[in-house]
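Box 3.1 A note on notation
Throughout this textbook, protein chains are presented in two layers. The first layer is the amino acid sequence; the second is a token string describing backbone geometry. Keep the layers aligned when reading.
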Amino acid sequence: MELHHHTNQPRDLTRGRPKAEVLSALATAVRDGQRIAASLTAPTAETTPQQLAATEIEGAELDALYLRVPADSTQPPPKELRRITVEGETAGTALGKLRDAVADSDISEIAALTVTANAGAGQGTANLRTLGYCASQLPRFECSITASLQAEFDGLAGGITADLAGGIADWRRIEQALLALADLGSAVGGSLTMRLTPPAPIAVDSNDWEQFRSVVANNNPVALRIEAEPAGSAPSGGEQ
């Protein structure tokens, strides 16, 4: 849309406001990055005149300005695709919630899936081990691990705490020894998080999705939290 101001039509632009106030408002809009352009020559179908800077607008004659609003400035910004996070007492429940949530959203493809399981009361690290089995059965997915473990031992003051993050290969080197040590404890807490990145963004009706769904459902880690990161969003391990 183009707006032109001429000396014989002052009210079209100022609407009774002082011209200095209008110039100041235009300059502020340009400084704020709003898509409005002011020039001293009229735009044509073939040419777009050089846009004035905010300071140049403030020093210009209002009646000499041509204002231009690019056509796409009135288009609404793309809708932000937010991460989807679900929880379920069983893997099947969490996976069903996730599929339904994705279907009800504007998300067409998923760039990464983050799955978290917690150490259950009285179960030691069994639930963490169960989630860990999934990584070996998903070779097409790149996998990174974040683990947090705490354990206390009867008759001993203090305890052990481990907070680790890295690739699945490095985790495998110490997984069994670390979890076995924690299982000797009288009280064990902690969580294991797997971030799974497919070779390309996936839809919920794709083969990669079905592989992810079946592996997690068959191993059935409990009390799961699953986050789906839409393709095109900024990577993050947290919920938005």
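The mean pLDDT is 84. Strands lie at 2-4, 37-39, 66-68, 84-88, 110-118, 142-152, 159-167, 187-197, 224-230.
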